[in-house]
């Protein structure tokens, strides 16, 4: 699954022309879906008008060739407003990001996600990370909502996720009308943990690498699904591990390093917005070398 970056001009204003080119390239590479205006897309930095423009441009660029999901978030009222804007723009689904800043009790989180889901007819995926840690019972309550189709995990707590999976199975046994939700590995550079998630039955994951090196992302995914452990480990050791170690060298690099990679791929997507900063030049050079090394694996 691809999470395109949002393109800006050098002065920080939107560059929708460059954004459309980037999204079109991502669609042509063949991901399962496109997720726009999410974390990698600097959702936090977009005002409401810009959000609508970005989402509409992505839908137009995808032109029905791949499903487009849009990120929505902040408090319940604003998340509902964004959900309706995205639905009007023609997206096929929503990713509900964690609510802004607060650490809420489980009943409040369930009420928040339910309210956003109820405001739209679109399928929605609930995202847990940072300030959202759902209990198994809360997760089971949410997947019983008819248009909640998935849970994206950004915590990396496999014990918790296994218990969530069990609670969902219990709920579905008690009520067969509950659809089987998709569980997604949503950790940064999710390929590094793909084998671990695979072991508990989570087969899908988001891929920031797809933004700038879709050939490497697809080759890794093919090896993973074929059970070619030797090739999987070659990609992990020769590409993904060096990338993760480089990402750890700068605050915000989970976004800004990805955007630098997109620029290295030839797309004029511009800088990141404040408070993020672009990677140091020596780190961009290292990223170029890591990508080159990844392309000779396999």
TrEMBL record:
Keywords: Lyase. Its EC number is 4.2.1.41. Pyruvate binds at residue 40. One of its GO terms (molecular function) is 4-hydroxy-tetrahydrodipicolinate synthase activity. Belongs to the DapA family. GO terms for biological process: D-glucarate catabolic process. Pathway: Carbohydrate acid metabolism; D-glucarate degradation; 2,5-dioxopentanoate from D-glucarate: step 2/2. The keyword S-adenosyl-L-methionine does not apply. It catalyses: 5-dehydro-4-deoxy-D-glucarate + H(+) = 2,5-dioxopentanoate + CO2 + H2O. This is Probable 5-dehydro-4-deoxyglucarate dehydratase. InterPro entries: Aldolase_TIM (IPR013785), DapA-like (IPR002220), Dehydro-deoxyglucarate_dehyd (IPR017655). The active site is at residues 127, 152. Signal peptide: none annotated.
């Amino acid at each position: 699954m691809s999470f395109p970056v949002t393109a800006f001009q050098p002065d920080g204003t939107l560059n929708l022309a460059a954004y459309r080119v980037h999204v079109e390239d991502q669609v042509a590479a063949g991901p399962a879906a496109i997720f726009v205006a999410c974390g990698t897309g600097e959702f936090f930095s977009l005002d409401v008008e810009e959000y609508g423009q970005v989402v509409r441009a992505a839908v137009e660029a995808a032109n029905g060739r791949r499903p487009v999901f849009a990120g929505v978030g902040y408090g319940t009222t604003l998340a509902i407003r964004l959900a309706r804007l995205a639905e009007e723009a023609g997206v096929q689904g929503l990713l509900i990001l964690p609510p802004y800043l607060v650490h809420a009790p489980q009943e409040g989180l369930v009420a928040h996600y339910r309210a956003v889901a109820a405001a739209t007819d679109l399928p929605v995926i609930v995202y847990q990370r940072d300030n959202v840690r759902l209990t198994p019972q809360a997760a089971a309550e949410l997947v019983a909502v008819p248009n909640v189709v998935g849970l994206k995990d950004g915590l990396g707590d496999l014990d918790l996720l296994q218990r969530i999976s069990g609670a969902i199975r219990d709920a579905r046994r008690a009520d067969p009308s509950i659809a089987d939700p998709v569980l997604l590995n949503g950790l940064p550079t999710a390929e590094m943990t793909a084998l671990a998630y695979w072991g508990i039955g989570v087969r899908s994951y988001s891929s920031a690498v797809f933004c700038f090196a879709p050939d490497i992302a697809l080759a890794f995914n093919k090896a993973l699904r074929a059970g070619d452990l030797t090739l999987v480990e070659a990609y992990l050791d020769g590409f993904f591990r060096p990338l993760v170690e480089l990402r750890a060298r700068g605050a915000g690099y989970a976004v800004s390093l990805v955007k630098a990679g997109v620029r290295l791929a030839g797309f004029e997507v511009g800088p990141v917005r404040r408070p993020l900063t672009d990677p140091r030049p020596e780190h961009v050079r290292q990223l170029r070398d890591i990508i080159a090394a990844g392309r000779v694996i396999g």
